[in-house]
Amino acid sequence: MSMRMKKGMLAGLLVLAMGSVASPVLAAQPGPQDADSACAGTGPVLPDELAGWATPESATAAANAAGLAAMVLVPGRAVSARLHPVSKMEYVLPPEQAGAPDSTGGMVVFQAPVAGTYRVMLGQKAWLDVVHGGETTASVHHQHGPACSGIGKMVDFELPAGRSVIELSAASTPEIEIMVTAVP
């Protein structure tokens, strides 16, 4: 066997050996499919500005405009809101995604103290529209919540100061966690 062949075989064996050593390490690293198991047994992992998410207050979302005065969100405080069957909802404006007949929905009010970007966070899947001044406000950014936080969805809106209505629709659960914060 030539020296060149021996070096080639030795290099090939080293690559194979390194691959077998590296494979278990890569397999042990959690991937997106392991997110739930990686977070199991831990409380929410939250940055300081989202600390209010860990202690939601119980409330009932409004089913119509008359109930909105009783469901006002405070910036930085999470609420676990009981929702209503979508068939019983009387939204301020028809939602973009009404949902299936067996889905749930509700409305809450948010009072923006100053004009700026505000983030609406939800713990479960649901559609959300923000209504201000009788018109639906377009979102400016969407993202998932931080890993292991319990926040499933975060949507940003540019809002003027004043009252906005957050309409929730197409939810599949009877309750949903919701919180609004200012985006710096």
Blueprint (SSEs and pairs):
Layout: H1 3-28, H2 35-39, E1 57-60, E2 72-73, E3 79-82, E4 84-85, E5 104-112, E6 116-122, E7 127-132, E8 135-137, E9 139-143, E10 153-159, E11 162-171, E12 175-182
Protein name: Homogentisate 1,2-dioxygenase
Organism: Komagataeibacter medellinensis
Keywords: Signal
| Residue share in helix | 10-25%
**What is the residue-averaged pLDDT?**
82
What is the H/E string?
A: HHEEEEEEEEEEEE
- Beta-strand content: 35-45%
Reading off the top of the CATH hierarchy, the class of the largest domain is best stated as Mainly Beta
Count of individual domains: 2
Question: What is the structural class?
Answer: alpha+beta
Spatial separation of the terminal alpha carbons = 69 Å
Morphology: globular
Number of helices: 2
- The quaternary state of the protein chains shown equals single chain
**Number of beta strands:** 12
Radius of gyration: 24 Å
Protein name: Homogentisate 1,2-dioxygenase
Organism: Komagataeibacter medellinensis
Keywords: Signal
Signal peptide: 1-27
Walkthrough of the structure:
- The chain has helices at residues 3-28, 35-39, and strands at 57-60, 72-73, 79-82, 84-85, 104-112, 116-122, 127-132, 135-137, 139-143, 153-159, 162-171, 175-182.
- The chain is of the alpha+beta class.
- It folds into 2 domains: 3-30; 43-182, Jelly Rolls, CATH 2.60.120.
- The protein has a 6-stranded mixed sheet with strand order 1-3-12-6-10-9, with no helix packed on it. Strands 2, 4, 5, 7, 8 and 11 form a 6-stranded mixed sheet that branches.
- It is globular, with a radius of gyration of 24 Å.
- The termini are far apart.
- The model is unreliable at 2-35 (pLDDT under 50).
- It comes from Komagataeibacter medellinensis.
- Keywords: Signal.
- This is Homogentisate 1,2-dioxygenase.
